[in-house]
Specification:
The chain contains 16 helices and 21 strands. The protein is an alpha/beta fold. Strands 1, 2, 3, 4, 5, 6, 7, 18 and 19 form a 9-stranded mixed beta sheet that branches. Strands 8-17-9-10-13 form a 5-stranded parallel beta sheet. A 3-stranded antiparallel beta sheet has the order 14-15-16, with no helix packed on it. α9 runs antiparallel to α10 and α14 runs parallel beside α16. The two termini are 26 Å apart. Bound molecules: 3-acetylpyridine adenine dinucleotide.
Length: 543
């Protein structure tokens, strides 16, 4: 059913549900509300196409670190059977093709307003409606407002003195030009060595005249070992769809493999070495799944950390460079663990230099390049900022959301995000946040929490409608309890012990230091959400 204007002459569009964002979350949420519940639902999307994070992150080497056969929707066997991946890890263009396939197959694009950036959303209590405004001045109204803006969609370009004076060109990896960047003959500086920088550097180095990598925090990385998928593997995926889905739904991180149920100290040092070596050869995030206590016990983690640091020293020929790369100050996987293709090998190239900006911090950007505190000057034609995102809260706060009694989300979250189940905020009725802070989101293969959230939200709205109710909001007590539980879950792991982690908001100056994702695992989270629903949406007020 088409959306209607409120009254003749009014420019407001009125729908039942507005969804912000057309990535994985927004696409599935639109399908679920429109095609399962029969709601009038629309998506507002700033980009000119579907894809969300994959639309913007077109940097060289952009590739998913979840294995392709698990990085896709599982809610429809029919949808899954209509698609075949080509590589172990899909490259950005292939994920985009997949999401377009989904959008076309489910006929979603007719209800997505592209090129429409939301600039404000205000809850009108008298009407129990959300009033949403866009950059172009359009106005929308809806009973339900669902954010599907992802966790990593607000690019962080560090405020380095002299930035505006740079005479060359600069790019942030999360806002990469569609036409690409030609590095041939250019002196390129890359700032940042997170998952993105680790993927980008080897590819940039292939064409740049020279690449200088500015590393502030040394990072672990395990080889991805990407390969084209064999016909046998594709057959396995086709034939084993229910089993693969069942594994993804019953593992803490939503990946299609299980975490080994053994402690690092259950095996001899020789056996442990053999296990790590096999996992290194196999490649990918399964390295983290070799033992159950890697993220729980520092001594256990040290064994993996030592193994990985030794690998760096073995790969990188220049001992000084190797030492800077292996000088890692945090437990393995306590920051998001990158996987790579030839990252450490890249530092053996003649046209690549590593600069340790922990020891000698970036002082300024000059017209000619980057200057560090020691007075060293690095002349550059191009600077690539692989400097990450104002993660999790950033994409929500920039929507300028105002709830009941004029309370803004920025005020409600001044000391850090507070919500219930990661899905709803007290004082913001009928606002649902897919993969919001407090959700397992970024600690998982993202599609798994996304599917769970969308289905939970859809069931919740169906529950309200079946009872003639039109409002749901968590109680302050439920929010307090969830915030406590999120903190406790994080404190039971090594994750909050990394002072410079974006999980804590530590990469953004002035951002409250709160561990944002739910570290209790997707299986436990799913169980809690199911119990809450089964108990009549315990912890929520409805009306
Ligand atoms: O961002 P990051 P990312 N001066 O924040 C450095 C997902 N992802 O885009 O650690 C100098 O991790 C910063 O240093 P430090 C994934 O969840 C997935 O790489 O703050 N350096 C760090 O080295 C990932 O975790 C995939 O000390 C500065 C880097 O920039 C998340 O996205 C691929 C600086 C930022 O690392 C974010 O990853 C890519 C400054 N002023 C990303 N400011 C896959 O699926 C920041 N840095 C494969």
């Amino acid at each position: 059913m088409a959306a209607t204007s409120l009254s003749p002459g009014s420019t407001d569009r009125s729908v039942d549900a507005l969804i912000i964002g057309a990535g994985f979350s927004g696409l599935y949420q639109l399908h679920a509300l429109r095609d399962r519940l029969g709601l009038r639902a629309e998506v507002l999307e700033a980009a000119e196409g579907v894809g969300g994070t994959w639309y913007w992150n077109r940097y060289p080497g952009a590739r998913c670190d979840s294995e392709s056969h698990s990085y896709c929707f599982t809610f429809s066997e029919d949808l899954a059977r209509g698609w075949e991946w080509t590589e172990r890890y899909p490259q950005q263009p292939e994920v985009m093709r997949y999401l377009n396939y989904v959008a076309d197959r489910l006929d979603l694009k007719r209800d997505i307003r592209f090129g429409t950036r939301v600039t404000g959303a205000r809850y009108d209590a008298a009407a129990n409606r959300w009033q949403v405004t866009t950059e172009r001045g359009e106005r929308y109204q809806a009973t339900y407002l669902i954010t599907a803006v992802g966790c990593l969609s607000t690019a962080n370009v560090p405020k380095i003195p002299g930035f505006e004076t740079f005479a060359g060109r600069w790019y942030h990896t999360g806002q990469w030009p569609h036409e690409g960047v030609d590095f041939r003959g250019k002196r390129v500086g890359q700032v940042g060595t997170g998952s993105t920088g680790i993927q980008a550097a080897p590819v940039i180095a292939e064409t740049a005249a020279h690449l200088t990598v500015f590393q502030r925090t040394a990072n672990y990385s395990v080889p991805a070992r990407n390969v084209p998928l064999t016909p046998e593997f594709r057959r396995y995926v086709r034939e084993s769809f229910p089993e693969i889905r069942a594994t993804m739904q019953t593992t803490p991180n939503g990946h299609p493999f299980r975490i080994e149920d053994r402690s690092v100290f259950d095996v001899t040092p020789e056996e442990r070495e053999r296990i790590y070596e096999a996992a290194w050869e196999k490649g990918g995030l399964q390295f983290r799944a070799t033992f159950r206590d890697l993220l729980l016990d520092k001594a256990a983690n040290d064994t993996a950390a030592d193994f990985l640091k030794a690998k760096i020293r073995a790969i990188v020929r220049d001992p000084k460079t190797a030492e800077i790369l292996a000088n890692i100050d945090h437990p393995y996987a306590a920051k998001r663990p990158p996987i790579d293709t030839n990252y450490f090998e890249t530092f053996n190239r003649d046209n690549v230099t590593l600069v340790d900006v922990r020891a000698d911090p970036i002082e300024a950007i000059t017209p000619a390049g980057i200057a560090t505190r020691s007075g060293a000057q690095y002349p550059l034609d191009i600077i690539v900022f692989a400097t990450g995102f104002d993660a999790m809260t950033g994409p929500l706060l920039r929507l300028n959301i105002e709830g009941r009694d004029g309370l803004t989300l920025a005020e409600a979250w001044r000391a850090g995000p507070r919500n219930y189940l990661g899905l709803q905020v007290a004082g913001f009725p009928n606002l649902f946040t897919i993969t919001g802070p407090g959700s397992p989101s970024v600690l998982c293969n993202m599609v798994v929490p996304i599917e769970q959230h969308v289905e939970w939200i859809t069931d919740c709205i169906a529950h309200l409608r079946a009872r003639g109710l039109s409002l749901i909001e968590p109680t302050p007590e439920a929010v307090d309890g969830w915030v406590r539980h999120v903190n406790d879950a994080a404190d039971a792991t090594l994750l909050p012990q990394v002072p410079h982690s974006w999980y804590l908001g530590a990469n953004i100056p002035g951002k409250p230091r709160v561990f944002m994702p739910y570290a209790g695992g997707m299986t436990r989270y799913r169980r809690i959400c199911d119990e809450v629903a089964a108990e009549g949406y315990r912890g929520f007020g409805m009306g």
